[in-house]
Amino acid sequence: MSIDLPSTSTCTPLAAWAAAARPSALQAMLSVSARPEILSFALGLPAPELFPIADLARAATAVLSDPMALQYSPPIARLKDHVCALMAARSVSCTPAQVFLTAGAQQGMSLLTRLLLEPHSRVIVETLTYTGFRQVLEPFAPEIVEVPTSADEGIDTDALARVLAHGPRPALIYAMSHGHNPLGISMPAEKRARLVELAAHYGVPVIEDDAYGFLQYGDAAAAPLRALDGRWVCYVGSFSKILAPGLRQGWLVVPESWMAALSIAKESSDINTRTFNQLVLTTYLETGLLPGHVDMLRREYRSRRDAMLHALRLHLPEGARWRTPTAGLFVWIELESRVCTDELLRLALEREHVAFLPGRAFSASGAEGAHCMRLNFSRLPVHDIEEGIRRLGRAVNDAPRRARD
Ligand SMILES: Cc1ncc(COP(=O)(O)O)c(C=O)c1O
Asked: How far does the centroid of ligand 1 lie from the alpha carbon of residue 12, in Å?
């Protein structure tokens, strides 16, 4: 005998943000970039051949002599001491009690937003910004306020001042002071000072995402926002770009009084950052090899950056513009406005087997960057960079141009 149950709603049971979620441009590019025939400038991947494999293998073997390396564990105190030393090298003074260890910068930002946001909170982001931060915001359905950003100097602090002077107080400002993703630039010192001054004046926390701050290519490394203000700036750091993203290790520098709430938020997310990875990282840091490794990365990435800039000058048509990235892993390119880089990507992939990320992927509203693209210069060796830019140049030259208005 069959029982007729009253039909329930045909609506999806997912929360609104989850039901609306679509695969990100980055996810799509991960699978495209894995195709062997593709030369990919799409993702912010470090060069795998530069990972310190032998040193990490030695650390891993040493760590495994104790089975507790595979146990749940509290945060490793020695690792916090190393983080404080790293921060001191960037002119930030902090104590281990202000350091919270995370599974990468991404988790750090996710935990901070859980602490700072209520549903529908107001959040300030730049018009062009890191897509991963927008993803952590989505479950809160926030009111996103976009502040213009310049491809020369980053966030427009005058526009920020106007936003802060009117309307309700935002819950947070998201900023990248060095090696902006996607723009590849760093904020000048006076803009960093102004941003911090505004945050303190209006009492708005700044999440400073410094994932690329240790990869600066000038002679002297500039300090992060956190060096200017220990109250309103929440610092987010990462070992992903200076050691290996697969370790999934990052950290926060935040007020000590936030630790209890952060610990609860983290416990609900992954209980603890992998014990084994924390111990391998700590053992590696105790060898004292990291500063030399980071110097080597800076030299190598600077020469890859320069090779890319040289190839761009040779192969991109007149009208294309870019700046020399001062930090991080990306060059931001503006093509003539009649080229749509979403369409260009299709042509570049299908005909030239070269990948990049179109500018609109970084636009909070989807309205910016339609004629722009982001190129990564760390992942491929110089000869592949040269060949990839030659291919890209052909694609740009042949890309359809929209009629002028
Ligand atoms: C600006 C920015 N922040 C954070 C992250 C995430 O870093 P992690 O691997 O430490 O989670 C990335 C990764 O590419 C990034 O580009």
From this structure: 31
